[in-house]
Amino acid sequence: MRRKLALISAAAVVATTGAVAVATQAFAASGCSAKYTVVNQWPGGFQGQVDVTNLGDALTSWTVGWDFGNTSQTITQIWNADKTQSGVHVNATNLSWNGNVATNGAISFGFTGNWSGSNPNGTNFTLNGVACTGSTGGSPSPSRTSASPSPSTSTNPTAPTVALTSPTSGSTFTAPATVGLAASATAPGSTVSKVEFYNGATLLGTDTSSPYTFSWANVAAGSYSLTAKVYNAANVTATSAPVSISVTTTGGGGSHVDNPYVGAKVYVNPDWSAKAAAEAGGSRVSNQPTGVWLDSIAAITAPAGSGYATSLRAHLDNALAQGATLAQFVIYDLPGRDCAALASNGELGPTEIDRYKTEYIDPIAAIEADSRYSSIRIVNIIEIDSLPNLVTNADGQAGATSACATMKQNGNYVTGIQYALSKLHAAGTNNYEYIDAAHHGWIGWDTNFGPSAQLFASTAKGAVGGVATVDGFITDTANYSALSEPWIQPSVTINGQTIRQSKWVDWNQYTDELTFAQAFRQQLVSAGFNANIGMLIDTSRNGWGGSARPTAASTSTDINTYVDQSRIDRRIHAGNWCNQSGAGLGERPRATPATGIDAYVWIKPPGESDGSSSLVPTGPNNPGGKGFDRMCDPTYTGNGRNGNSLTGALPNAPISGAWFSAQFQQLMQNAYPAL
Ligand code: BGC
Predict the structure, then answer these.
(1) CA-CA-CA-CA torsion sign (600, 326, 270, 621)
(2) Which CATH architecture has domain 31-144?
(3) Does residue 476's CB lie within 6 angstroms of at least one atom of ligand 1?
(4) H/E element holding 90?
(5) DSSP per-residue string spanning 600-618
(6) Average of pLDDT values for 145-165?
(7) Residue boundaries of the structural domains of the chain
(8) Given 104, 255, 356, 572, which is the most exposed site by the fewest CB atoms within 10 A?
(9) How does the average pLDDT of the chain come out, rounded?
(10) Are strands 130-131 and 123-127 parallel, antiparallel or unpaired?
(11) Does residue 501 sit in helix, strand or coil?
């Protein structure tokens, strides 16, 4: 599904002039304080965060204005707000769901931007046209369209200044760490009354005399954003630029290696293994390593009655008992999960980013950071389908869904993945992050290829630790695209026509996963990822062996007949994705199978359904309320995203993730290489 639709950037324009805002403020108490934070910066780009406190009356809509320091500073993407930028001036306005702000309530939004030369902090903050001075009664700011001089600021004391001088950005400590913080501060025309030190919004300590220092002791593994805040005698404050540090566990995990699969013994999930072994002939594969899907908050602790047999800790303890040195977990619980399909909808609503952070990622990171597991290389596969859905299925495209548009607009896929990368990477040197990169039949078209790499890069650059938090990418997760297509490479021509013109290929630049994964790796490196990133390919179900597998190229001179007779992938349409009839187990998991490929892996456990073939009401057979996607119904004749074709789905399938014996038997039967 979900293919060749071009990325068109959001162009929501909401214009609010300062003049209008001032008029509506005439009889209301108004005032604000504003904080501008450069969360992360890299050559040419940065991620910013604006936090405004409304000190005046409650608001039902807002416009936050500010000025950048130079014209090179431009916003490229914003979340939790819309924006207009004219020269150095920016106006950010509320979205439909976050316009109401109580007195003392907070407005927060983030963005990514470009810069060159220098990247000074934003200044001249206004809220609905009123300057943010830290108190009510601030001066209305001039209309942006008026040429009149700025109003006098003589009633406002000169702001103090502060800089965090220690630690330096990017410093790494070993847990339990003692982090020495130091700040320099000035208070022109006044005196410094105190300097506070913060980790995010949490006050760590205060110093009232120079030199301003604080010793932060017993710091656990994680990534932290530190700031200092100065108060002058008139209680006017200023906050320093943030400093990002990470604290990691030492453990015996040794150094972080380039390819964690080399020389590793990979964990076999006993829950999957038992189901596979219980099938006739299943013992031929039941000792293969498969991915452990942490597909809900309950999957972390597996409480009684949750339907999960084994908690994350128990999996890691099992891995130790097996003598395994690598375990694979799928991080899969974003807010508004599976926005373009219905079969794997998740538990968190589109706005529940805080729950994702505190109830899902934080506990996983804490367990993975436990030094008890430091001998295990922990591979996290991060959020299947999510970023690709923002590229091809959000606003402005033919196949767009409103659920994906919402996730693009509210930024919670990007924010969630940035948080996951920041926290999990900092969990230890034995931790490895691989982001999901869909498959060739989704982002292989050149309209999607470059934009996907760009979005992955801008997302990773916004994580604490930046692109270095990413060890690689995975393609074909839970999909069926063939590993190699020897006879339908895009360079082939039949009767003067390129293969790309065939109905099956439909102008895609790629026809198989291996060629695609290798090329996409290069594209990701050009977009800013480290040159040593490696790819994984999920080969659990892309074997396409058995009697229907072609053994030679077709001799037909008709392009469509040639392609259909020669292709390894036997699907009805490359957009079909659910419980595919005719599929087989693919290459067995192994390390370094090809240039640029860290490993072939089985992340989707063979035998686990992609989705039910008819509606299963919420109840004993569907405790989590998984939806019904007609792409899993063999009688459905399809839609624009699969060329209005039959779905090719197997009948009588249970909900996604549930055991599907008939599928497992077919996968073994059609395994390639054969079992
Ligand atoms: C489902 C998950 C399941 C995973 C592995 C996904 O499609 O939504 O619940 O754990 O597949 O089978």
Answers:
(1) negative
(2) Sandwich (2.60)
(3) no
(4) strand 89-93
(5) EE--SPTTB-SS-SS---S
(6) 55
(7) 31-144, 148-249, 270-487+510-551+581-627+652-669
(8) 255
(9) 89
(10) antiparallel
(11) helix
Average pLDDT over residues 496-518: 97
CB 596 within 8 A of CB 557: no
| CB-ligand 1 contact for 293 (6 Å cutoff) | yes
Query: Of 20-24, 76-80, 117-121, 568-572, which gets the smallest average pLDDT?
Result: 20-24
Under the banding of pLDDT at 50, 70 and 90, the label for residue 254 is: low
333 lines ligand 1 (CB under 6 A): no
pLDDT, tens digit, for every residue of 350-372?
A: 999 999 999 999 999 999 999 99
Structure tokens at 366: 């804490």
> How many degrees, rounded to 5, is the angle at CA 64 between CA 62 and CA 67?
165
Instruction: Please identify, by atom number, the ligand 1 atom nearest to the C-alpha of residue 338.
Output: 8
**Quick one: what percent of the chain has pLDDT higher than 70?**
91
CA distance 215 to 181: 6
Tokens representing residue 437 in the block = 């990169």
Of all protein residues, the one whose alpha carbon is nearest to atom 5 of ligand 1 is 657
Q: Give the HSE-up count for residue 34: Cα atoms under 13 Å, Cβ half-sphere.
A: 24
Question: How many angstroms is it from 295 CA to the middle of ligand 1?
Answer: 7
| Catalytic annotation present for 385 | yes
Q: How confident is the model over 619-647, as a mean pLDDT?
A: 93
The answer to whether the CB of 582 is under 6 A from ligand 1 is: no
Tell the residue number behind the tokens 């938090």, with chain if given. Answer: 469
Task: For a ligand 1 pocket test, name from 332, 339, 436 the mutation site with the most ligand atoms within 8 angstroms of its C-beta.
Answer: 332
Confidence at residue 284, expressed as pLDDT on a 0 to 100 scale? 98
Ligand 1 binding pocket includes 607 (Cβ within 6 Å):
no
Distance of CA 284 to the CA centre of its chain: 36
Under CATH, which number does the domain 148-249 receive? 2.60.40.10
